[in-house]
Amino acid sequence: MADENQKNYSLREFKTLWPYLAPSIPNYIAGLFCLIIVDLGQILIPLFIKSAIDSLSNQQATLRSLGLLCLGMLALSAIISVGRFLWRYFINGASRRIETEIRQSLFNHLMELSYDFYQKNKIGDLLARAINDLNAVRNALGIGFVAFFDSTVMAIAIIIIMLIQDRDTALFAIIPLPVITLLIVGFGNMIGGRFKKVQESYSSMSETVQETFAGMRVIKSFVKEEYFVNLFAKNNNDYKNDNVSLVKVYGFFFPMISFLSGLTTLILLVIGGGKVIEGKLSAGTLVAMFSYLQMLIWPMLGMGFLINMIQRGAASLGRINEIFAAPPTIRSRELTKGPIAGNSGYIKIKNLSFIYPDGTSALHNITLDIPSRSVMGIMGRTGSGKSTLCKALCRLIDPDDGTVFLDNVDVKDWDLVSLRQRFGMVPQDPFLFSDSIKNNIIFSNEYASENLIMETVALTGLTRDLRDFKDGLDTIVGERGLTLSGGQKQRLSIARAIIKNPDILVLDDAFSAVDTETEQHILNEILKNRKGKTTIIVSHRVSTLKKADFIVILDQGKILEAGTPSHLIKTGGYFAEMAELQRLEHHHG
């Protein structure tokens, strides 16, 4: 969705709505039927007025005849009122259902998209498309559709009736109408371009708000409130200016249409009034034609509303379709049937290289065996490829064919859901949901018993922390775990992975915010409870990795050293240097 400012959206965007529109066609037909009844009722009312005025002018009116005309108009008004309710129920109701279905499909599609999509697109922009843009699409399908049909039917019917009443007068009176049509067509493109800028400004403002609130702790710790206030003020002002630019078009467009519509009334008064004086036209007919001209103002304005809504809808739908057009870059192969036999947890990596879309080379020809039921340690400097390697195992990033194997089966041949269910991942940047501590723990195992939950809490050293929380396990942690410390968030993330009891547990620098004593307690408990299962530990601490059966040292995406902890200490390489450095740090406090 890059370079959006250079994209122009056309009415062809509406083709994508057919699957959502098709089931609602009966509703639209019923709504149109009711709308036709309303339009017919409105068109007949001036004829009642004409009859009443002509009979009064000719002094042929009686209380009974006037009463019957009034009753007829009252009955028509009742029918119009019911018809208006029904067309709103059918058409607006259908547009709301379509909006709901599109939003659900959009959310479903977003859930299927791969991790890299969310690295390239901002959450605020996605929220703007799912809310603000969808509202514009719904308006186009609802009131925009009504404006098109209603304006067309009313305009044609009124012009025909006026021509029947008095052809010459009607022809002169509708002279300004072609000018109105040309204005509508001309202003349509101006409205579409300006509205696209409004939506983009709204997206930028949403991005700023989302990032500001999510990073409030960092903002306050660095005293950057003023910077973000100014940033939001700029986005807010840009949004205002783009809206004003759009309003300027409306400010000229709609008064001009009203002026031209009023001009038709002036023409009718001059020409029709002269004919009444000459006796060529009845007073009732002139009044009826005045009513019809007033009724013509809505179709003209309605066409303006229609152009506005269609252009807005096309621009917004184009932005939404960009998301639908983005395919999941990581998915199960079509030939994949389901779970593959085998649960030993044996991992084989063969000549694995990986380059990110931005050109960053993360891994170079990694070849590695991780035996089942073993504890594998990974160490390396920041940016050496440790997290990338962990992500490749369960296809959070997509390795090349024939490079990563689980239980002797290429991970690309595994069903994606089955593959990821084998893993329990604890990322170095833990994410918690704005929910209770308990619900965050059982996120990976919603059927966990109370005993299992408490055992997991004890294993991760959270028992003493719960005593400090008023509501214990039911304590709400706030958005992204805002109310917890870094160590508490990491331990809660570890508990979430442990309670799943995965075949392969990956701890990606999961103890960086935990003190050494607590880390040793948790790690000892984990390894004691996971005998017979594969565990991968990424860490900078030698004391942590000494518990591993085998250690790999990564540097710039390559394997620098590999071996058992005792072997690496003897070789005097990077691992031995880190062991000595950390020993000295510990000795000197």
What keyword list fits this structure?
elongated, 10% strand, 10 strands, 21 helices, alpha/beta, 589 residues, four-stranded antiparallel β-sheet, 63% helix, disordered N terminus, ABC transporter transmembrane region fold, single chain, six-stranded mixed β-sheet
Topology:
Layout lengths: L17 H4 L3 H33 L5 H50 L2 H6 L2 H19 L1 H23 L1 H7 L3 H38 L1 H6 L3 H54 L4 H43 L21 E9 L5 E10 L4 E6 L5 H8 L10 E3 L2 E2 L5 H6 L1 E4 L10 H5 L8 H10 L3 H6 L17 H13 L5 E5 L7 H14 L4 E5 L3 H4 L4 E6 L2 E6 L1 H7 L2 H14 L2
What do these coordinates show?
The strands form two sheets. Strands 6-7-8-3-9-10 form a six-stranded mixed sheet, sandwiched between helices. A four-stranded antiparallel sheet has the order 2-1-4-5, with helices on one face. A hairpin with a 2-residue loop joins strand 4 and strand 5. It has helices spanning 18-21, 25-57, 63-112, 115-120, 123-141, 143-165, 167-173, 177-214, 216-221, 225-278, 283-325, 386-393, 416-421, 437-441, 450-459, 463-468, 486-498, 516-529, 542-545, 565-571, 574-587, and strands at residues 347-355, 361-370, 375-380, 404-406, 409-410, 423-426, 504-508, 534-538, 550-555, 558-563. Helix content is 63%, strand content 10%. It has 21 helices and ten strands. Mean pLDDT is 85; it is low at 2-6. The two termini are 51 Å apart. Helix 2 (25-57) runs parallel beside helix 6 and helix 8 runs parallel beside helix 11. The protein is an alpha/beta fold. It has a domain at 25-325: ABC transporter type 1, transmembrane domain (ABC transporter transmembrane region fold), CATH 1.20.1560.10. The radius of gyration is 36 Å and the shape is elongated.
